[in-house]
């Protein structure tokens, strides 16, 4: 027989008292009554202690039960937290994967954009270099072309001249119809331009001689030549350039002849007011002395006009974003060539004073390059718009495919439901089709028989079931 914890405590407490009582009983018989009384008191005290110990044991047992219950709840909570941790860990991994994918995609898009911007800067830089090289080549070619020039008769007046310019416009538009061959087309255009410019210069010689120093007529004629060059370049008035725009400033009123619009809201100023009286005297001079004096006066007139344009500082006018350079237009090619031949430092002097001297050939080349810059600008805008449209089409296609995928899933579910319903009609010994067919055999009147294929399938199913039962 096994002692309980309470019994063990009782024996442990009572045993010393019993031993003490026995000893006293044997050795002090005379004081037995007194000892018995003391023992009874002691026993009562021990009983009280025992009852108190029992209460403590009950409290401890209840605490143990509560601890077991709390421990189980903690284990349950731990399991729940572990499950939540696993779910959160999976979600965290998925989010990290999506973030990494998004970062890679964003990096690729940024690299693609940077490459496009870099290529655009390279194209602009290369175009600028080509322009500078072509300008130098044209100037050198023009000097050689007109080294043996002399005055010639004007065989055609403005009407044939305009017709030739129109023919040139048609050639330029034809040459520039294909953007993929722009550089080769520009070289071809320059060759045609040089051939045509020779005749233009001859006509200009004769016309300048006929003008005989009439300043107003010279100015109008120079503006007409400038207008023709602008028109033949393919630029449109009031869209790509404006004529004689007035600016009122603290220093007075300024009115440049032409303001050409450039990409990025930039501008280019062209001035055509150049006196050709001295050059006319040079062309008509009968002696070397007259020619020498006339060419000096011609160079002085050009230098004075360069200084005048430099002092105007057109690039500081309000609303203009022009490079610190003004184009000074000389309508007669040979007038500039003869001046350069007599004073080789004239062109460099103009550059130092922020003036670029141009002729019909060089100006037309510059304007065509500007038109090419606008083409590049438009192409970049179209490319950006196309990329935006492609992104929208991609998103629409993605949504459509997602809808089609959802529709396919729904169709699969509908097909599965349909097949289940049909099996309920035609499968099993007591299928509904077979039972209804039996009604007709029993003489039930029907307006229309069941579809034969369903009856055949139901019969076939029944035959297969009976065949399986036989085996």
Kindly describe this structure.
- With 471 residues, the chain is mainly alpha-helical.
- The chain has three domains: 5-111; 146-379, no CATH class; 427-471.
- 74% of the residues lie in helices and 6% in strands.
- It has twelve helices and seven strands.
- The strands form two sheets. A five-stranded mixed sheet has the order 1-4-5-6-7.
- The protein is elongated.
- The two termini are 67 Å apart.
- Residues 145-158 have low confidence and may be disordered.
Radius of gyration: 55 Å
Major sheet characteristics: 5 strands, mixed
User: Whole-Å distance between the termini?
Assistant: 67 Å
Task: Give the CA-based shape.
Answer: elongated
Approximately how much beta-strand content do the residues carry? Answer: 5-15%
Task: Break the fold down into its secondary structure elements and pairings.
Layout: H1 5-27, H2 32-145, H3 158-175, H4 182-211, H5 215-232, E1 241-243, E2 247-249, E3 252-254, E4 258-262, E5 266-271, H6 277-284, H7 288-312, E6 326-329, H8 333-342, H9 346-352, E7 355-358, H10 360-426, H11 432-441, H12 452-470
Parallel strand pairs: 5-6, 6-7
Antiparallel strand pairs: 1-4, 2-3, 4-5
Short description:
The protein is mostly helical. It has helices at about 5-25, 30-145, 160-175, 180-210, 215-230, 275-285, 290-310, 335-340, 345-350, 360-425, 430-440, 450-470; strands at about 240-245, 245-250, 250-255, 260, 265-270, 325-330, 355-360.
Q: Which key features would you list for this structure?
A:
about 475 residues, 5-stranded mixed beta sheet, single chain, elongated, about 75% helix, mainly alpha
């Amino acid at each position: 027989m096994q002692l309980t914890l309470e019994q063990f405590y009782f024996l442990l407490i009572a045993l010393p008292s019993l031993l003490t009582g026995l000893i006293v009983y044997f050795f002090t018989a005379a004081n037995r009554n007194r000892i018995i009384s003391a023992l009874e008191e002691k026993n009562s005290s021990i009983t009280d202690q025992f009852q108190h110990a029992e209460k403590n044991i009950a409290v401890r047992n209840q605490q143990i039960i509560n601890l077991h219950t709390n421990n189980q709840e903690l284990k349950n909570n731990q399991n729940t937290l572990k499950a939540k941790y696993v779910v959160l860990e999976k979600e965290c991994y998925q989010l990290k994967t999506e973030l990494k994918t998004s970062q890679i995609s964003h990096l690729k898009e940024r690299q693609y954009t940077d490459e496009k911007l870099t290529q655009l800067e390279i194209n602009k830089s290369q175009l600028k270099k080509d322009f500078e090289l072509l300008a130098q080549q044209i100037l050198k070619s023009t000097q050689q072309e007109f080294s043996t020039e002399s005055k010639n008769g004007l065989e055609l007046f403005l009407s044939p001249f305009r017709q030739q310019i129109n023919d040139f416009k048609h050639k330029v538009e034809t040459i520039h119809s294909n953007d993929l061959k722009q550089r080769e087309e520009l070289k071809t255009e320059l060759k045609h331009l040089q051939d045509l410019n020779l005749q233009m210069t001859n006509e200009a010689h004769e016309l300048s001689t006929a003008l005989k120093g009439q300043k107003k007529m010279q100015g109008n004629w120079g503006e007409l030549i400038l207008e023709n060059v602008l028109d033949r370049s393919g630029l449109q008035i009031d869209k790509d350039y404006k004529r004689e725009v007035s600016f009122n400033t603290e220093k007075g009123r300024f009115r440049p002849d032409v303001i050409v619009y450039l990409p990025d809201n930039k501008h280019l100023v062209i001035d055509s007011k150049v006196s050709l009286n001295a050059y006319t005297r040079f062309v008509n001079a009968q002696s070397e002395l007259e020619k020498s004096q006339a060419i000096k006066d011609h160079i002085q007139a050009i230098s004075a006009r360069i200084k005048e344009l430099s002092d105007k500082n057109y690039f500081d006018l309000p609303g203009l974003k022009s490079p610190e350079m003004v184009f000074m237009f000389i309508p007669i090619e040979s007038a500039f060539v003869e001046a350069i031949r007599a004073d080789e430092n004239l062109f460099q002097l103009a550059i130092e004073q922020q003036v670029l001297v141009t002729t019909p050939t060089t100006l037309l080349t510059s304007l065509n390059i500007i038109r090419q810059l606008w083409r590049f600008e438009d192409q970049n805008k179209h490319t950006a718009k196309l990329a935006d449209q492609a992104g929208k089409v991609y998103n629409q296609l993605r949504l459509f495919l997602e809808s089609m995928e959802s529709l396919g899933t729904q169709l699969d579910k509908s097909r599965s439901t349909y097949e289940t319903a049909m099996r309920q009609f035609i499968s099993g010994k007591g299928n509904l089709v077979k039972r209804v067919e039996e009604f007709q055999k029993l003489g039930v009147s029907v307006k229309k028989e069941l579809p034969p294929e369903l009856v055949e399938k139901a019969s076939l199913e029944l035959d297969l079931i009976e065949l399986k039962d036989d085996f």
